[in-house]
Amino acid sequence: MHQNLYLYFRRLGHALLIISTICLLVCIVGYQTFDPVLWGWSGILLLIVGSLLLIVPGRLREHVAHQNNDICQQQATTRGWSAWLLGVVLTGFYVLLYWFPYTLQGLVFALEPLSQWLRQKPSDHWFVYGAFYTLAVMLMGVHALLKYRNNRYHLIRTCSVIFFQLGFAFILPGLLLAFNKPEFYFSYFWPLKYDYLFPSTVGYLVDNGAALGVFMVFWGAVVSFVATPVLTYFYGKRWYCSWVCGCGGLAETAGDPYRHLSDKSRKAWQWEVAIIYPILGFVIITTLALWVNSWSGGSLLGDLSGGFARTYGFFIGSIFSGVIGVGFYPIMGNRVWCRFGCPMAAYLGILQKHFSRFRITTNGGQCISCGNCSTYCEMGIDVRWYAQKGEPIIRSSCVGCGICAHVCPRGVLKLENGPRNDRYAGTILIERDSLQILS
Amino acid sequence: MQAEKHVVVIGNGIAGITLAQRLRARSASRITIISAESATHFSRPALMYVYMGHMRRQDITPYPDWYWKEQQITQLQDYVQTIDFASKTLQLRQNGSFRYDVLVLATGSSAVYYNWEGQHLKGVQSLITMQDLELMQQQTQGIKQAVIVGGGLIGIEMAEMLQSKGIAVSMLVRDNLYWRSNLPVAEAELVTQHIQNCGITLQLQEELAELTGDDTGRVSAAKTQSGKVIPCQFAGVATGVKPTIDFLKNTGLELDKGILVDYFFRTNIEDVYAIGDCAQFKDPAPGQPALEQLWYTARQHGEVLAANLCGSSKPYNRGPWFNSAKFLNIEYQTYGFVPHDWDEQNYGSLYWEHAAKTKCIRLFYERETGLLKGINLLGVRYRHDLCHHWLQQNYTIHQVMQELTAVNFDSEFFQHYEPVLLQQYYQQFPDRQAPVKQHSWWNLRQRFSLFSEKADNC
């Protein structure tokens, strides 16, 4: 593309984003004076146009061989001032959303027409959140599609996460409400969506959804306990984490520019196992306790199990998955929640490590230890550690995003599903030692 | 190797490091690695990615600090000034004299300059060491044009690096196509076209005559032997490498281009060995190179020497050749040996090329016996273990065709081109039958035991 034209688009894009921010601020702060629908939608439309003006010409101009140029030299992607600013803005947004939702009233009013049209229900702050979340996945989905346009795996996978976010996590729950059915997300399951198997939610779905509600409970339970082990057996945890899940969807799109910021140290791995498995345990215990309580009519545990559930909801559901999980993207990388916090990831990880056909194969003795794979692993896996020994990479945390295989300059890595016997065996073309990072 | 022995390795590249690691797996001896270049081992092929901003410097060190501590391998950053082989002592610039029991020289390579006029100007350099990288980062700040002298693997790396910073790059290539001295015409044409499509100017059949400078002593233009003058503020020299052995001259160590060794990596002096780029085989087996200057061979040298220091007496036997590289966006893999030119009467090949000229596959074989000699791949990945097996077991092209469906290593959802290659095969050999069954990699892996269950498999 012509250099001047590109610069023109870029300036225009930046200008529109600044105007968009002003519009949205006017909408939030001044909705009592100004028309929130007019200002809010102006802001949203300018945000869309401005982002696309930055993303599309910028990515098309860049040759596919230059996908990662300057990533480690630009302040925005190396914890520079704008990364911190973005981190503060995102974190601030989550704080307002969870604890001071009335401050976002302007945006709630702005999205009222959309909410009525889609859900035939009044808008609320969770609808605002869902709309902006989906918008982020879509806009940055365009970025990911253009960036990885030379790799079919990433094209299909990115389309998949956009589809599930837009269809299953935004439109479908809205339509359910429009038809006076219980709001339900068919792409989230226990233990990530921990309350889907809590007695209270099950009761609500069955009481309010009639046959559909029963199906929802059935669907959730079957996916959690049957489909998850089966799919993970055949494809690894990637079928969920980087193809279906909304958290994964945001991480793979909006979070993609920050994937190299994940901590690769041994210490970080120690923290990971020390946090994520107790969280899974906490969800299991809470769920069991709630059911015991429900069956015993509250006589056995009193409000203890409810306390458990509220504690979990506050610390893990709100603070961890939202504030830290997304707010810290520009500082700690895009998978902090998925790596350290998500109980579904822990569950899938155990299955992937011990009961799955999935692995990342190292191609014989071809590794040159360059480190691109480890650097761009969003889960902080030291992929090179295994590749340079000619071993397959089988780690419970691996979400199978496939970027390691993509950035490898020697084509050494391949995500594949194969027989489980000799799954951990490596090549005969390199001598290697038995030393492990963690025993 | 007895525990009380002190093994000193000069050079912390892949050869020296592999030796130290493999030695540690077998022995409790004291191991020290000395390098003037860097405090710890780093991946040399990754230097370019630091320049381009794909990674930071700390990202190209393959082993964290705890690894060396736990393995009890000492790394010393110092410069070896002289070696006294008689008293087994090194003179180090900072640490004074330093004793060894066994010395392993793994000093690597340095760039070759051909005494061009102006080669000492500011802005003229090669790219081999960490210091070269730092220099290149300084010297290319804010410049507009650069010239690369030499159309090889380091040349294209430097070109890609410079281009990533928006610098216009011209490459002087001696042959009529890029890397034609290694690639057959078709492959060389494909790569040449790709490089040009990416916006790098190739000056084909041009060699450097001299470099001219401005009044500040900085390079300002490259003049070719045909008289072309190309303005530039940076000139990258990538005309090959030679063993780094200058400090070993007149020490009694037998030298030629490199340090002369046998296939046990023994030099003429007892307890002194040489591996990697700096070693030169005294009597190379027929058809085998005397110098092997690859990452992969350096690693193998380290493995074999470690075994021999610990009592094995197996000479180095490289096995089927392989190598890989990347030309901007096109990956290159080669297995076995495909010459750049051959005599059509004795040799044939199956060659497929993508219509977009971004991928190709060549299977090269001997006509009389049908023996597979080598494989060239551009933009397509094959399984190393299976290709190695074919070459090691002397497969014929006909046997290879039976297993061809198992060899592809491209990512999931990528299109496979092996069926097209098979079609071509039946055209060349109309009397041949289609494979009885489609082999999967997993079956062949199991059948030929192309895996190793145990670690410490040395």
From TrEMBL, chain A:
<feature type="transmembrane region" description="Helical">
    <location>
        <begin position="274"/>
        <end position="292"/>
    </location>
</feature>
<keyword id="KW-0249">Electron transport</keyword>
<dbReference type="GO" id="GO:0051539">
    <property type="term" value="F:4 iron, 4 sulfur cluster binding"/>
</dbReference>
<feature type="transmembrane region" description="Helical">
    <location>
        <begin position="126"/>
        <end position="146"/>
    </location>
</feature>
<feature type="transmembrane region" description="Helical">
    <location>
        <begin position="210"/>
        <end position="234"/>
    </location>
</feature>
<dbReference type="InterPro" id="IPR051684">
    <property type="entry name" value="Electron_Trans/Redox"/>
</dbReference>
<dbReference type="GO" id="GO:0046872">
    <property type="term" value="F:metal ion binding"/>
</dbReference>
<keyword id="KW-1133">Transmembrane helix</keyword>
<keyword id="KW-0813">Transport</keyword>
<keyword id="KW-0812">Transmembrane</keyword>
<keyword id="KW-0479">Metal-binding</keyword>
<feature type="transmembrane region" description="Helical">
    <location>
        <begin position="12"/>
        <end position="32"/>
    </location>
</feature>
<dbReference type="GO" id="GO:0005886">
    <property type="term" value="C:plasma membrane"/>
</dbReference>
<feature type="transmembrane region" description="Helical">
    <location>
        <begin position="38"/>
        <end position="60"/>
    </location>
</feature>
<dbReference type="Pfam" id="PF12801">
    <property type="entry name" value="Fer4_5"/>
</dbReference>
<keyword id="KW-0411">Iron-sulfur</keyword>
<keyword id="KW-0472">Membrane</keyword>
<keyword id="KW-0408">Iron</keyword>
<feature type="transmembrane region" description="Helical">
    <location>
        <begin position="81"/>
        <end position="100"/>
    </location>
</feature>
<dbReference type="InterPro" id="IPR017900">
    <property type="entry name" value="4Fe4S_Fe_S_CS"/>
</dbReference>
<keyword id="KW-0004">4Fe-4S</keyword>
<feature type="domain" description="4Fe-4S ferredoxin-type">
    <location>
        <begin position="390"/>
        <end position="418"/>
    </location>
</feature>
UniProtKB/TrEMBL annotation, chain B:
<dbReference type="InterPro" id="IPR050260">
    <property type="entry name" value="FAD-bd_OxRdtase"/>
</dbReference>
<feature type="domain" description="FAD/NAD(P)-binding">
    <location>
        <begin position="6"/>
        <end position="302"/>
    </location>
</feature>
<dbReference type="InterPro" id="IPR023753">
    <property type="entry name" value="FAD/NAD-binding_dom"/>
</dbReference>
<protein>
    <submittedName>
        <fullName>NAD(P)/FAD-dependent oxidoreductase</fullName>
    </submittedName>
</protein>
<dbReference type="Pfam" id="PF07992">
    <property type="entry name" value="Pyr_redox_2"/>
</dbReference>
<keyword id="KW-0285">Flavoprotein</keyword>
<dbReference type="GO" id="GO:0016491">
    <property type="term" value="F:oxidoreductase activity"/>
</dbReference>
<comment type="similarity">
    <text>Belongs to the FAD-dependent oxidoreductase family.</text>
</comment>
<dbReference type="InterPro" id="IPR036188">
    <property type="entry name" value="FAD/NAD-bd_sf"/>
</dbReference>
<keyword id="KW-0274">FAD</keyword>
